[in-house]
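How a chain folds remains the central question behind the approach discussed here. This step matters because it turns folding into a mapping between discrete strings. The sequence in question and its structure tokens are set out directly beneath this paragraph.
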Amino acid sequence: MRKPRDYDAELKALNDKARQLREQKLRQLGELVVVIGADALPIEQLAGALLSAIDTRDAAIKESWRKRGVAFFQTAPRGARGADKSDLRTAPGAGSPAPAASEDRA
């Protein structure tokens, strides 16, 4: 006779795995913010840039962001701030560059 399945144990294992994946994703997003140097931005400015990226419908802009991201990951050594500072000054969805971080603090 076959042993009955323990659905509760299987569900708990799946929930644990989902929680681990969410925590890993959150940790990786935080690491990305630090690696690209966005942790130097005020939190409100970073949130605004991300919201602009979400709201952008222009496929050409999104494709250029994707290409810059690919280039960053291909050239930047792990843990290094490999992004060009001028690239970080352009907010997603904005047509003009934002002031440099050093100019904000002056």
